[in-house]
Amino acid sequence: MDAILYSFRRCPYAMRARMGLHLAGTDYEHREILLRDKPHAMIEASPKGSVPVFIVDGTVIDESLDIMRWAMPDANFQTDIIEMIDGPFKHHMDRYKYASRYDPEVKRGDVNLEHRAKAVENLALIEKTLVGHAYLRGEDMGPTDMAAFPFVRQFAAVQREWWASNPDLRRTQAWLDTCLQTPLFDAIMEKHPLWVPPS
Questions:
Q1: In the chain, at which end, N or C, are there fewer CB atoms within 10 A of the end residue's CB?
Q2: What phi and psi, each to the nearest 5 degrees, are found at residue 181?
Q3: How confident is the model at residue 78 (pLDDT cuts 50, 70, 90)?
Q4: From the CB of residue 33, how many other CB atoms can be counted at a distance below 10 Å?
Q5: How many angstroms separate the CA atoms of 150 and 186, rounded?
Q6: All domains of the chain, ordered by start, with CATH?
Q7: Per-residue pLDDT tens over the stretch 120-143
Q8: C-alpha to C-alpha distances, 123 to 30, 40, 119, nearest whole angstrom
Q9: Do the Cβ atoms of 50 and 56 come closer than 8 Å?
Q10: Cα three-residue angle 159-163-167, rounded to 5 degrees
Q11: How many beta carbons lie within 10 A of that of residue 199, not counting itself?
Q12: Tens of pLDDT along 104-122?
């Protein structure tokens, strides 16, 4: 099998893809890129220009959940959680974290607390789902955990002290910590040198 993955280490979408491929034991060429300097070969394969891009035997798969489904064909995602993470939660997280991108009156580096509060409201679904068990569907990490926690990780990192002290998210905080301490996460966060196209 001839396979290539274009990835960016800190991108939560790329993390999803790498976890699925790692669990499947897929052998592929890892091409680490810079988002500000996307290689022509990646754009040629996937004009939308975002990672991950997985090319396997000539077929291009450029959506993170589709890569997970390719790698884990029996995966059963919890649709309500996935739709919340990829929809309203991501919307509010971006506007909380990158407030100056969306409001020219906000100083660079400042956050939007209104969008932070909305994102916390979204996370109530995860908080409720975790009642009585460590992961979203029991005592073992499943595909929904893998698809969701990289985004919650990004949210938690914006204001770490606030995140750690928030009493409304105790189960979500413990879940995220557990996910981050798994061998799977350690494996997919291995650092790769920047891919340089052949001259």
A1: C
A2: -95, 5
A3: very high
A4: 21
A5: 13
A6: 3-73 (3.40.30.10), 79-183 (1.20.1050.10)
A7: 999 999 999 999 999 999 999 999
A8: 32, 37, 6
A9: no
A10: 150
A11: 3
A12: 878 888 899 999 999 999 9
